[in-house]
């Protein structure tokens, strides 16, 4: 990182896994230094894409893409565009909770407050068995197996 202050770069291609830091740490450092460098992340991990975009990456290429895709991405980024080829951007902002109905979010919210099934049933005016049924459906929908995992996912989603 020391050399970056002395160099004059327009675009940098960064692997998502560097020897001494990850791409997100590098992006954070460059953002802190206000280096003004346009960065293309070169990775096979789509999981870091959202975080890299939030930290200021301008492009993203898969390591297994055709070299022409990388070249086209570099040209687009050099011309001031954000370029993420072959990626459905609508899925970038999706979380397991983004598919829930307002009623399911309400149910998850009271779980996060520590409410019991009996308290939930009383509040919603349904039986405890119906609460259990709705909870099983909720767990299946968000891909968890129990109340604790659902609450953890709820709090992780709020942090985003």
Q: How many domains make up the coordinates?
A: 2
According to DSSP, the number of beta strands is 3
The succession of helices and strands, N to C, reads EHEHEHHHHH
DSSP helical segment count: 7
Beta-strand residue percentage: 5-15%
Overall average residue pLDDT: 81
Structural class: mainly alpha
- Within the CATH hierarchy, at the fold level, what is the topology of the largest domain? Rossmann fold
CATH homology group of the largest domain: Response regulator
Spatial order of strands in the largest sheet? 1-2-3
Straight-line distance between termini: 28 Å
Segments where pLDDT lies below 50 for 5+ residues? none
Q: Looking at the chains present, what oligomeric state does this protein adopt?
A: single chain
Shape call: elongated
Major sheet: 3 strands, parallel
Rg result:
22 Å
Helical amount: 40-55%
The appropriate CATH architecture of the largest domain is: 3-Layer(aba) Sandwich
**CATH class type of the largest domain:** Alpha Beta
């Amino acid at each position: 990182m020391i050399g970056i202050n002395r160099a004059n770069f327009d675009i940098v291609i960064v692997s998502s896994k560097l020897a001494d830091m990850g791409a997100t740490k590098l992006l954070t450092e460059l953002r802190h230094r206000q280096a003004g460098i346009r960065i293309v992340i070169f990775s096979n991990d789509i999981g870091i894409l959202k975080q890299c975009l939030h930290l200021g990456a301008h492009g993203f290429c898969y390591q297994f893409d055709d070299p022409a895709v990388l070249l086209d991405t570099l040209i687009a980024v050099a011309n001031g565009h954000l370029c993420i080829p072959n990626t459905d951007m609508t899925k970038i902002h999706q979380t397991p909770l983004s598919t829930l109905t307002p009623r399911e979010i309400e149910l998850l919210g009271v779980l996060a407050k520590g409410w019991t099934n009996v308290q939930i049933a009383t509040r919603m005016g349904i039986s405890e068995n119906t609460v259990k049924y709705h909870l099983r459906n909720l767990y299946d929908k968000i891909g968890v197996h129990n109340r604790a995992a659902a609450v953890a996912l709820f709090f992780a989603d709020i942090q985003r």
